[in-house]
Amino acid sequence: MHALSSRDGWRALPQNRTMPVSAFRRQPDRRQPHPAAAAAWFAGLAGQAILASEADILRQVALDRPGQPGLWLSPSGMGEADLVLPLLRLCAAAEGFEGPLRCGLPLPLASDSCGVVVVQHLADISAEPATLLDECARVLVPGGRLWLLALNPLSPYRLRWRGQGPRVSEPVTWRRRLRIAGLAPEAVSRGVGPTWRITPEPAVQDGAGLRAAFLLRAEKRRAPMTPLRTPAKTRFEPGLPTA
């Protein structure tokens, strides 16, 4: 889950000098997120404004599947946005997650054990978003729901996190990833958070628009019912023993 970045530029080589082999090494992927830097950004004022904007959404999550266990994956240091919810909360750490459990992927949870899973910006900072979604889908019960909160790359607010670690994608990309993980995403995302000012904005709108973040919900497909095979009728021949 670690990613590297490089700021080295090209340097002119003196003539009649042999270019070192190391110059041909593959350059680091600048698109890879840096989990530590991204976590630090969410702990700052700009990140806290987004997390505070999402507090009402998190309260709705607690009512989504009452009586069923739930999982909440979030950044650490949520500050004023900190909530106490009846969910197992695991926070991003230098290596995996911390909280009541210290773990990485795969999650040490049984399959089909959670009625609801919240991924609050962990997919934005994960180097393995596909693996993360696969694990979330695995622990969801059939018919359970995933609540994905992600940063919006179309928002002017993106200038505040540019170069700070998160790697973001549009809702259409997340829908494709959710389908690959075996989940059925909703057709319309919901925008939340500020547009530019570092001020919490909890009002939710249809579509991501220019809001700093968006909510996308997806449901785990129920296993198809296997029809019972009709037993073959036994034919009896006259005069033949039946036992």
Structure description:
- With 243 residues, this protein is α/β, with parallel strands linked by helices.
- It has a single domain (31-220), classed as Rossmann fold, CATH 3.40.50.
- The chain is built from 7 helices and 9 strands.
- The chain has helices spanning 35-43, 45-53, 55-64, 122-125, 129-139, 158-161, 171-180; strands at 70-74, 88-92, 97-98, 114-120, 140-151, 183-185, 190-192, 205-206, 213-220.
- Strands 1, 2, 3, 4, 5, 6, 7, 8 and 9 form a 9-stranded mixed beta sheet that branches.
Written as H for each helix and E for each strand, in order along the chain, the element string is HHHEEEEHHEHHEEEE
The count of helical stretches stands at 7
Unreliable segments of 5+ consecutive residues: 1-31
User: Which descriptor suits the 3D outline?
Assistant: globular
Quaternary status: single chain
Provide the CATH topology.
Rossmann fold
Rg computed from alpha carbons, rounded to a whole number of angstroms:
24 Å
CATH superfamily: Vaccinia Virus protein VP39
Q: Let me know the largest β-sheet.
A: 9 strands, mixed
| Corresponding CATH architecture | 3-Layer(aba) Sandwich
Explain the layout of strands and helices:
Elements: H1 35-43, H2 45-53, H3 55-64, E1 70-74, E2 88-92, E3 97-98, E4 114-120, H4 122-125, H5 129-139, E5 140-151, H6 158-161, H7 171-180, E6 183-185, E7 190-192, E8 205-206, E9 213-220
Parallel strand pairs: 1-2, 1-4, 4-5
Antiparallel strand pairs: 2-3, 5-9, 6-9, 7-8, 7-9
Task: Provide tags for this entry.
single chain; 243 residues; alpha/beta; Rossmann fold; nine-stranded mixed β-sheet; 19% strand; globular; disordered N terminus
